């Protein structure tokens, strides 16, 4: 005698056996961190119509330099605003670990070293991944005695793996460079303000005595601004 299957079970079986194809299910996966930042920039850095929002991107670009400074691996940092609307941070020292730099550009939260030399997992928005995600393009270049390593990104996505692009010249110093151009689709008609960068520089060098930050603005004929780190108290 046939067994009558309850109607709710029939509906359930139909739903279970009619799952969407794998390629459709894949599209429904959780967005990556850079996609979330780009989709909701105000959730991450606040009002993007404020010029100071660009300063948050500078904070992220400074992160590698400040970490090396906290470890006594850096004494000089240059923050440069270029005529093409991009900005760069270059710092001396033996060179930041390229693998860590690549991860920092793509992950959040991220591990960093504090001025107290403690390794912490931070959720601060002044992170390299925020700078990278909200930039039209971004790249880093690490020059070390082992070679020169670089990686490029376009709107948060890596365009290539870390590449060795050459050797360090015999008379060239080892250093680390991060350069980015804020995405004009996010920051419409905006440009960096020197006063904002100066105040951020002052805050960044607190508790970093012996470290010097030089701010260069290629858009003007003004002299570079120099900030020396100091210890509070």
Describe this structure in words.
This protein starts with 6 loop residues before the first helix and ends in a 5-residue tail after the last strand. The mean pLDDT is 88. It has one domain: Histidine kinase-like ATPase, C-terminal domain (Heat Shock Protein 90). The protein is an alpha+beta fold and 233 residues long. The longest helix has 19 residues, at 52-70. β3 and β4 (119-122) form a beta hairpin. Strands 1, 2, 5, 6, 7, 8, 9, 10 and 11 form a 9-stranded mixed sheet that branches. 31% of the residues lie in helices and 27% in strands. The chain is globular, with a radius of gyration of 23 Å.
Question: What is this structure, in a nutshell?
Answer:
The protein has 233 residues and is an alpha+beta fold. The chain is 31% helix and 27% strand.
Strand content: 25-35%
Overall helicity: 25-40%
Would you tell me the structural class of the helices and strands?
alpha+beta
By CATH, the topology is Heat Shock Protein 90
Number of domains: 1
Report on the biggest sheet.
Answer: 9 strands, mixed
The end-to-end span amounts to 90 Å
Specify Rg, calculated over alpha carbons. 23 Å
CATH superfamily: Histidine kinase-like ATPase, C-terminal domain
Number of strands: 11
Question: Low-confidence segments, ≥5 residues, pLDDT <50?
Answer: none
Shape: globular
CATH architect. name? 2-Layer Sandwich
- The first-level CATH class name: Alpha Beta
Sequence of secondary-structure elements: HHHHHEEHEEHEEEEEHEE
Please give the count of helices.
8
């Amino acid at each position: 005698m046939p067994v009558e299957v309850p109607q709710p079970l029939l509906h359930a079986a139909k739903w279970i056996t009619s799952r969407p194809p794998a390629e459709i299910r894949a599209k429904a996966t959780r967005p990556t961190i850079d996609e979330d930042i780009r989709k909701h920039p105000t959730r991450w850095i606040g009002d993007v119509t404020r010029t100071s929002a660009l300063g948050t991107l500078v904070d992220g670009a400074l992160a590698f330099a400040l970490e090396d400074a906290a470890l006594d691996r850096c004494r000089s940092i240059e923050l440069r605003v270029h005529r093409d609307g991009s900005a760069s941070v270059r710092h001396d020292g033996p060179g930041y670990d390229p693998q860590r730099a690549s991860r920092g550009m793509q992950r959040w939260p991220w591990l960093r070293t504090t001025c107290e030399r403690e390794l912490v997992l931070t959720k601060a928005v002044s992170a390299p991944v925020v700078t990278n995600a909200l930039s039209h393009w971004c790249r880093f270049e690490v020059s070390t005695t082992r070679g020169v390593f670089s990686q490029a990104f376009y709107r948060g996505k890596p365009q290539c793996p870390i590449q060795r692009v050459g050797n360090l010249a015999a008379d060239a110093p080892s250093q680390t460079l991060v350069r980015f151009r804020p995405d004009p689709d996010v920051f419409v008609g905006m440009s960096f303000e020197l006063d904002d960068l100066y105040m951020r520089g002052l805050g960044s060098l607190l508790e970093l005595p012996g470290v010097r930050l030089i701010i260069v603005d290629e858009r003007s004929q003004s002299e570079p601004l120099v900030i020396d780190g100091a210890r509070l108290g």
